[in-house]
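Slide 14.
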Amino acid sequence: MLEKNSKIFYDSHFHYSDCLEKGCFNPPSSWKGCSCAHSIEEWNIQCGQHFLHSFGIHPQFIADNDFLLEKYFLFQQNLLEENKLDAIGETGFDFFNENFKRYSVKQEKYFVLQLEAAIKFNKPLIIHCRKANEKLFYYSKLLKQVPAVLFHSFMGTSIEAKSLLNKGINGFFSFGKQIMNNNKKVIDCVKNIPSESLLLETDAPFQFLKNESMTSVADIEKVYESVSQLKQMDLESLFYLLENNFYSLFVYPKKQ
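Slide 15: predicted structure.
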């Protein structure tokens, strides 16, 4: 266990290249995070920076016919072979609108390929899932073979979250500014999922509130403050909890 004296903010999910483009990569002085890249260009921008690195085939991009799926997937496999990734993702399912739904078969294909890679290379898997939680349960037997799974910006119920954990998945559920938007499902999850499965994120520069144009990496402080109030938990205890959870996700015991 870690010493109960850390005041480091942990952002489990953000996008470095997009933040640079929008001028919102301004983390707190004591901060650690994991950035996701979804193209070779994004990877080259974030490569070498002092945070954790993930690369994934995002389900939304599969609907873009100009997105070089096979090229990016092979690039991801090379990164894994060279042990340059801390995690795989984000990957998953997005059935939010009819356009995305039309590519459900291709979404599933690349999700399974990346899920199998997470098992093979013993890497955490970062999952994006909108309007498709039934797919998480369908693949639960494979997901429990992954060393750790981050359900990024989880939009299910606390009952669904607990059910996934009960399937034997080493799961973590991450939340951002939706907490500050009176999202009842998110608030219920933050209050009721096991504390050891909770993580926080910004998803910067995305997932901004009404009347905002973007989310800043610095907004992780606001997310921490909101959760501290919501869980009636002092910030020192929250820092300690989330530091342990962050390293349980990203620095995990190697399989025997």
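Speaker note: The first strand starts at residue 9 and ends at 14.
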